[in-house]
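User: For my dataset I need records formatted as: sequence, then structure tokens, nothing else. Please produce one.
Assistant:
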Amino acid sequence: MSSFPSRRRVLTTGAGAAIGIGALSATSARAATGTGTGTGTEETRTLDELYRAALAEGGKLVVYAGGDTPTQQDFTKAAFLKRFPDIDLTLVVDYSKYHDVRVDNQLATDTLVPDVVQLQTLQDFTRWKEQGRLLRYRPAGFSKVYDKFKDPHGAWVAIGAIGFSFMYGTSAVSSDAPRTPLDLVDPKWKGKIASSYPHDDDAVLYLYSLYVQKYGWDWAARFAAQDVRFARGSNSPGDAVRAGTHAIGVGGSGAPLATGPVKWVVPDSAPFMAWGQRAAVLKRAAHPTAAKLYLNWQLSLATQQGSFNGWSVRTDVTPPAGLKPVWEYPNAHLDGFPRFMADRAAIERWKQTFALYFGEVKGDPTPGWPGLHPGA
């Protein structure tokens, strides 16, 4: 596995641990329905029981997942089908900012395709809950999920913890490794930095806003003078560093403890950012049981314990030595990102201001053009 996956592969790599793993242990309440539709109960059926029920329902499942390239969720699909081979799973990757309005349009035209949405656009889950679009459901282990990573009524739950920061090629920087974002404006790195556009991706935008709030707009001006190669897709900085074309990448995810040619930086006190990638079952989903199976699988201990970056959304999963739970890093601004995403007017001002510094976004969307009804 690459030492520096894209952010959406944070959600996929952990799923590999579920391959060949048996079903969740049954509880004494196995006979209960375990639907958890707002009554406070969690799912009590095992994965195998849910699997059989999903097959009886028709055996189909469509997931719309936020991502940067069409293949970024291939590992998730392969792992899920290894565990549940008779499910007909369609997993469509696109930028979250397109998936959300796609779902809105499908709902407006009575042409809904997905059963599950898992997206970075956190504000949509709040809105969809208020509109009554989401099924209130608590998968097994819901009570163990960090409180701020779940809706108390079960309308949505985070299935993966993702962090964004900068990274560098260990051989490219040698002993001169940057330790804070302030180091990135040193003239010695001119022409050696790749970044995703902050005004194309809201998570990257939040990261850059934290840098500006910490170091001022002078930092942005100096960074703009570094001849940075900007590209679409939060996978692009890591790709550039791995390929050896650039020494430093800004605006992507990684594993804090990973060893190898690329080092992803969690600064001691300088800002980075993290969030819980939310997922939900749509109330009008055509395959609600298969959707519940998917959420239970994502939240299972086996999947969460196998997360590639060591961070789980569950409080009962202990990170590896040298790592704290992601919510224990105050400089990750975990609480700030949902607030940031909710203020769309402020986001537009941030975007347009960064466009003045870094130029307009250029290039086709890296997931391609899935259209109005992908997966139908």
